[in-house]
Design goal:
Order of helices and strands of chain B: EHEHEEEEHEHEHEH
Distance between the termini of chain A: 34 Å
Shape of chain A: globular
Strand content of chain A: 15-25%
Structural class of chain B: alpha/beta
Number of domains of chain A: 1
CATH topology of chain A: Rossmann fold
Helix content of chain B: 25-40%
Oligomer: heterodimer
Helix content of chain A: 40-55%
Mean pLDDT of chain B: 96
Strand order of the largest sheet of chain B: 3-4-2-1-7-8-9
Number of strands of chain B: 9
CATH architecture of chain A: 3-Layer(aba) Sandwich
CATH topology of chain B: Rossmann fold
Strand content of chain B: 15-25%
CATH superfamily of chain B: Methylesterase CheB, C-terminal domain
Number of helices of chain A: 4
CATH class of chain B: Alpha Beta
CATH architecture of chain B: 3-Layer(aba) Sandwich
Radius of gyration of chain A: 14 Å
Low-confidence stretches of chain B: none
Strand order of the largest sheet of chain A: 2-1-3-4-5
CATH class of chain A: Alpha Beta
Shape of chain B: globular
Mean pLDDT of chain A: 88
Largest sheet of chain A: 5 strands, parallel
Number of domains of chain B: 1
Low-confidence stretches of chain A: 132-137
């Protein structure tokens, strides 16, 4: 099924293989997927109005996942997004302390396709319902 | 009154919904401290409401605890329970990088003859809730943590376990069963 009606997902990862896999899996599940290779491009997309789920790698050159979240907050770009960390690290590092409320979930690579789809669908319910709340507030 | 404090962080909303899925109406006062963005607190409440017949609400300053309710701490405020009955919110400094802090709420509870307490720590980063679990245990509470293998992030439950004040280490499904058992005992 490829109707791209499930909502928008941004995969932020410096590993092209991960970006490709996530894009294929989620597009096939009906999501519109934007793929970017670093935090700077993630911020650019947000400044252009991206709303949806962000799957954010932790270990990236220049600006890592935590720095990216901090930049999102510093620029007031946190509305309309759900952030889940997508990482190969087994143990989360202490840079997360202070950012917990902004990290909705934590996915460890490698991931199962079905689990990824199930989780992204769940995150999307927060984005969508939040949008509806704004419409009627 | 039977008072349950559930402390949860990253990855927690799904676990909490799993616990409350099909949860019966029981004479419990369940307080949920979830580290979550203020943007999502109302959606989180709606999700829980869709899973259980227990009345569910986001706490406002001054509200009183009552049975058969799930009370969610609002994002951005610490929650204290005065005299084990009255909810007080404040904007004091973050603890462990978070507000609300699970520790702050758990540490505000007192040992009282008419109250039975339970403290639960779910998935999350850091050590929020560990001191609170020790305090609740000293007040006679049953203390439970989520089995770390079932957690997206293990450090919060792990920190609680390391205090040596945890009675049970359970999967989300077993936490649910224990909660139902706790609420069913007269």
């Amino acid at each position: 099924m490829t109707n791209n009606s499930g909502g928008r997902v941004m995969i932020v990862d410096d590993d092209a293989n991960v970006r490709f896999t996530v894009k294929v899996v989620l597009k096939d599940a009906g999501f519109e997927v934007i793929s970017v290779e670093n935090g700077i491009k993630c911020l650019e997309c947000l400044k252009k109005g991206f709303s949806g789920v962000i799957l954010l790698d932790i270990m990236m050159p220049e600006m890592d996942g935590w720095d990216t979240i901090q930049a999102i907050l510093d620029n007031g770009l946190e509305n309309g997004i759900v952030i889940s960390m997508l990482t190969a690290k087994d143990k989360p590092d202490n840079k997360m302390i202070g950012l917990q409320e902004h990290v909705f979930d934590y996915l460890t690579k490698p991931f199962e396709s079905e689990d990824l789809i199930r989780r992204v669908t769940y995150y999307m319910s927060f984005v969508n319902q939040n949008d509806k709340s704004k419409l009627y507030s | 009154m039977k008072i349950v404090i559930i402390g949860s962080s990253t990855g927690g909303p799904q676990i909490i919904e799993e616990i409350f899925s099909g949860f019966p109406v029981l004479p419990l006062t369940i307080i949920v401290i979830q580290h979550i963005s203020p943007n999502f607190i109302q959606v989180f409440k709606k999700h829980i409401m869709s899973f259980t017949q227990m009345e569910t609400q986001v706490i406002v300053d001054g509200c009183k605890l009552s049975e058969k309710k799930i009370l969610i701490a609002p994002a951005g405020f610490h929650l204290l329970i005065n005299s084990n009955r009255i909810c007080k919110l404040n904007s004091d400094e973050k603890i462990h990088g978070v507000r609300p802090a699970v520790d702050r709420t758990m540490l505000s509870l007192k040992k009282r003859e008419n109250d039975t307490l339970m403290g639960i720590i779910l998935t999350g980063m850091g050590r929020d809730g560990a001191d609170g679990i020790v305090h609740m245990h000293s007040c006679g509470a049953v203390t439970i943590v989520q089995e770390p293998r079932t957690c997206p992030i293990k450090s919060m439950p792990q920190a609680a376990i390391e205090t040596g004040h945890v009675d049970f280490i359970f999967s989300p499904d077993d936490i649910k069963k224990k909660l139902i058992e706790f609420g069913s005992i007269t």
